[in-house]
Amino acid sequence: MADLGLWLGLRSRNWGLGVARISVVVPVYNSEAYLPECLDSLERQTLSDIEIICVNDGSPDGSARILTDYAGHDPRICVIEKENGGLSSARNAGMRAASAPLVSFLDSDDRYLPQTCERIVQVLEESGADVLTFGGSAWPESESYPWLEEVLSPRDVTYEGFTPDILLHEASKPFAWRMALRSSFVRDRGISFDESLRYGEDQVFAFAVYPRSSITRLIPDKLYDYRIVHGDSLLNRMLEQPKDMLMTHIDMERRILDDWKSMGILERYAASQLEWICELILFDALRLPDAECEDIYRRTRDVLLVEWDSGITQTCGLASGYRRLIDAAYKGQKMSKVQRTSLMTSYYVAHNGWKALGRRIVHGARKTHA
User: Is the pLDDT of residue 366 over 50?
Assistant: First the structure.
């Protein structure tokens, strides 16, 4: 099946068009309702020298027919048919087939703005960066919310080499579809998506990509329309089961720790990883019922904190709010409601500052009296 899919894809290329300047990977699964608008956005690009790699991941709906129709009139479209393997598997297949010096991603229910490819190529060629992260917008705009607006709004900055600030203090994650990469960087550093994860693969990808990048460029340009889809999505199902979601986060973080150990950077950036564990897992666990919170804290200790002894919270210079969460996980003790509220408050101050806490309290009081 893989060989047939690759043959189908290569068959659709028109080599007479010349070498594409960027390959856009479009993973497709059950997307017939949205796929035409996605492909239309690529056909309207102001940069014409693009390669469009559509990976049909065993869709049982009419997606394959739509892809065939579009490939029939646009020789830039390469269609790869494969058995269902999940989003990461489809993206990896697309990256392997990419022939252009740059590669980017577009989910099949979203769309690029007309200038997206041109802007990506311009920035990466001018900066020489391995990685570019750009902004995006909720679509429709009425469905947006503050957290999404924040993470889709990077500032204009260039990093030479790696610092954890890229991951912890910039709007650089969690969506891989706002990243464009140099293809040689992907090949030379063995960059790929973890196909064993069914959720959170973009977070793991970000923690693998940025530490390996020699130059990372962030720009505020809103180049991507992210469709807000309600209903039976994997994300919505995970949000309805918060304990299961946090257990999945622990699994994600274990992959990240193993990868950073393989790069030899885990000990150097221990404080940053502990801060991330607090943000990703321990703070949200405090909102769970008592028994579920205790399960998450024990699991975090047994799976993640085994990398360090309990004295790490003192030696690596963690702020008090982070240190208290990590210490509570090491101890594995039952916590009263008062203790958990205290932990939540101290973490929130460490993460956001006293002014943000004040605004949150005022906002809550107004809602109570509204």
Answer: no
DSSP letter for 106, please: -
Quick one: tokens of 289?
């019922």
Q: What stretches of the chain show up as alpha helix (H) in DSSP?
A: 2-11, 35-43, 63-73, 87-97, 116-127, 146-151, 165-168, 183-188, 201-209, 234-239, 242-263, 270-277, 283-285, 290-303, 312-315, 320-331, 337-352, 354-369
Under the phi-then-psi rule, with left for phi > 0, alpha for psi from -120 to 50, and beta for the rest, what region is 134?
beta
Q: What is the mean pLDDT of the chain?
A: 90
Rounded mean pLDDT of 38-65? 97
User: Quick one: which H or E segment has residue 111?
Assistant: strand 111-112
> CA distances (Å), 232 to each of 62, 229, 235, 236, 259, in order?
19, 9, 8, 6, 32
What whole-number distance in Å separates Cα of residue 336 and Cα of residue 6? 58
Tokens 């990469």 locate to: 181
143/248 Cα distance (integer angstroms): 26
Mean pLDDT to the nearest integer, 322-344: 91
How many other C-beta atoms are found inside a 10 Å radius of the C-beta of residue 165?
12
Q: Which long-range contacts (CB under 8 A, 24 or more apart) does 320-325 make?
A: 320/346, 320/350, 321/278, 321/346, 321/347, 321/348, 321/349, 321/350, 321/351, 322/274, 322/275, 322/278, 322/347, 322/350, 322/351, 325/278, 325/282, 325/283
User: What pLDDT, in 10s, does the model give residues 147-163?
Assistant: 999 999 999 999 999 99
Q: pLDDT per residue over 180-217, tens digit each?
A: 999 999 999 999 999 999 889 999 999 999 999 999 99
**Between the CA of residue 120 and those of 25, 34, 174, what are the distances in Å?**
14, 24, 19
If one counts every other C-beta atom within 10 angstroms of the C-beta of residue 308, the result is: 18
The rounded distance, in Å, linking the Cα atoms of 60 and 122 is: 38
Is 90 exceeded by the pLDDT of residue 170?
Answer: yes
Q: Give the rounded percent of residues in the chain with a pLDDT score beyond 70.
A: 88
What is the model's pTM? 0.89
